[in-house]
């Protein structure tokens, strides 16, 4: 179970970090193509319209074909190295902090460890902590995934050096404000809805039918991801727009890139130039990615924790037998 459970053998802090990191690593490998497509949709400024499809990308399949034709299959894993470092680091910090916070709540308050409010608050705080820790990697991943051909950044090291020399150290934390604003409710809703759906499944499914626990974790995680992403999506788009601020090479991929003086200016310009629909560009691939990534994240985390607990139990039994 995700979160501290006083009635069962719980993973240690190090084990939670290891399971979270492994979960993030495997999930990122599988969902990278959807992430690249989502970023491309988020960064183009043209209005999306079926009557006047002036945008370069206007559907998931069309975007996938266009990227593959122009840049090759490997383009779907552009920025994959910083993305893997991002996912591994984010997963480790997030689940480690979440497990510790839920244990702390159990120790010093009267709230139950499966209370939805507890999971919402602890999930949001753990995600904010993880976000601050890995934000530079997220910015690097966005820049590498956004660039078309010819490339301006040849590899991760070249991107770090170039961005630092031309834009300064603060550029690695561009988009942090909308990220923090969005990540707290998004992660909080993920954890709370996952918890609610898990409890609901326990109520609906009889005890003798609970053998498919891994499938249940996957389904509950996917549903939680869709709900949370839909409610907080615009802030993810604002973050991506601000992260490519000053990234002139993105013009090669998107034709033009607007300059925003800050979060409020970004919101005003999108509303004025792209309409309300502009806040939800890339929502379809984002929801698809959220369903897959969130479901897989909880699936792999629960599986890795279960394996770790089994190994600890087996080791304990072996020691007693000696």
UniProtKB/TrEMBL annotation:
Pfam family, one: Mito_carr
Any GO BP: thiamine-containing compound metabolic process
GO MF, any single term: thiamine pyrophosphate transmembrane transporter activity
Catalysed reaction, written as an equation: thiamine phosphate(out) + thiamine diphosphate(in) = thiamine phosphate(in) + thiamine diphosphate(out)
Keyword Transport: yes
GO CC term, one of those recorded: mitochondrial membrane
Membrane topology designation: Multi-pass membrane protein
Keywords (A to Z) from UniProt: Membrane, Mitochondrion, Repeat, Transmembrane, Transmembrane helix, Transport
Location within or outside the cell: Mitochondrion membrane
Function: Mitochondrial transporter mediating uptake of thiamine diphosphate into mitochondria. It is not clear if the antiporter activity is affected by the membrane potential or by the proton electrochemical gradient.
Protein name (Swiss-Prot/TrEMBL): Mitochondrial thiamine pyrophosphate carrier
Organism field: Melopsittacus undulatus (Budgerigar)
Lineage: Eukaryota, Metazoa, Chordata, Craniata, Vertebrata
Gene of this entry: LOC101881075
